[in-house]
Known about the structure:
mainly beta
Amino acid sequence: MPEPVRMPGRPPAPGGPGIPVPERGAWLRRGISRDGGPLVEDGEVVWLQAGPYFADSRGFAGVTSFDGRQVHFHHLTGEPGEDAGTFRREGPNLVEWGTNTDGSTFLEVWTPLPLDEDGDGDDDCDRDRDSGSWSATGYHVVRVCRHLVHVDSRTGTYWQL
């Protein structure tokens, strides 16, 4: 059973430093706060990161970059656009703060999904064989161990292998 989500501390100061996202990981969103409201989650949102490539089950995928302060998610497939957030660690979680293009703000809490294949607590995944990113016209797939997100022009889908 997942631990309850606690509301993280205040966001970093505007323009303050953030951290880059890990090169490889599978993350489940534990909650989102919009414009300072309560932290809520009403669905399953999974984000996978394999090197510079990401896929989000909400229906967008592409590449990430880090400017020393914010991580930028450049959407290449699915929902068009780019979004950016400032990340910091809170225990095992990643906490992301950002501002949308319309000026509204968000805070998202991301908790790591296990990369453990056999339940012994070790990362059993072969980085080269079991993780990667593949794309062709109209779709993008990112796999991290047993986690896979497929994004096309209509939707994003998460599977556990």
